[in-house]
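Quick one: structure tokens for this chain, please?
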Amino acid sequence: MNAAVKAYDVRGIVGEALTDEIVEALGAAFVDEVGAAGGPIVVGHDMRDSSPAFAAAFARGATARGADVVAIGLCSTDESYFASGALDAPAAMFTASHNPAAYNGIKFSRAGARGISLDTGLAAIRDRAGDFLESGIVPVAEPGSVESRDVLADYAAYLRSLVDLTAVRPLKIVVDAGNGMGGLTVPAVLGEAAGLAGLPLEIVPLYFELDGTFPNHEANPLEPANLVDLQRAVVEHGADLGLAFDGDADRCFVVDEQGGAVNPSAVAAIVALREVARVRAAGETDINVIHNLITSQFVPETISAAGATPVRTRVGHSLIKDRMAETGAVFGGEHSAHYYFRDFWGADNGMLAAMHVLAEFGSQDAPLSALAARFTPYALSGEINSTVEDIPAAYTRIVEAYTGTAEFEEFDGLTVRGVTAADEPFWWFNVRPSNTEPLLRLNVEGADEATMAGIRDDVLALIRG
């Protein structure tokens, strides 16, 4: 079990790292750690074959320790955050997100969709579960109950209340759900499946059938190979754009009318502008927007130009949730297509980000490729992983090579920013180690493609020795 407990969630191979017995112990441990005895906890799950049984096992452990389980059944991760926020209850979501079919996992939330990381309760849940596995789960005097509840319609209505799409121009959208939970949530939010009024959107569905074996491609749109079907379909259907969701549908990737992938930093900048304008119109003046350190430099530039304060964070789901709460930020964006909203309890919601893009795009006449180009003025490498056994030695090579021509900052790895004259193109890069593997992750940005490519190739040669 210990190997399955990661920095921000639980994830491992079904039948090895995760079994019914382990999951039941985690359910009991979760209730004790968050003090949920006598109150409700939300339990939801994705479409993986193992998820319903795991959700049931978790409920057994949770009720034994006195919690009342609100079982919301099949849902996306952001739908579980909605239930946690709306009910002000802790939540457990069974999913392994974009991982292959052999995996499953749990994403935990405290009441109000607040995140839980290794440092803020997950390690304690792990240790308590280990004790329960060793000595058995002792039921409390008044065990809890299990109640089934469908929150999909309420979730869809809430998102519709945050972004008005009724007045956008008619749009044709191809949506690739990757056989994941977007196949359930997209028809509810963007269509009429939850009983809401129709929108001026024509949805062309791709792989909407819920299937945890992922028969068409992995539900990980961050990998370019998994966007190919969507890109082809957008062009074939003459669509205005395409959307791709990961397995648990909390991340959304956007494709333009030509099949080109829209950089998540561009999406972050678009949404940031909209959210800043919205709260400024409501009278707010001290406005914070969060971005992690490897989003494009254009994101903080956009935030500042809008009169808000950009707040830079390290990479990481729970870290950004914590900073959202600390700063009262209206929005937060990550390079990995996680987008966080104050009006969504500070949690991330890919569907809500997609709705903002649709609202912005649908309110003007230019094609999406033109809109995206305005928000992607610089060249980004994307994340490049290298297997490195001696990471300190790689850092030393980088520092020696760039001393005198760059500034260094140790903040979530090593960030190196070129010292350039006013007429020279800017550049920066970040190298940071993986939490779980002997990998160094490189991200590079430059003022133009040639600058970025030159720095990228030089740094990769230093990393790989």
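The chain has four domains: 2-150, 155-260, 264-374, 379-463.
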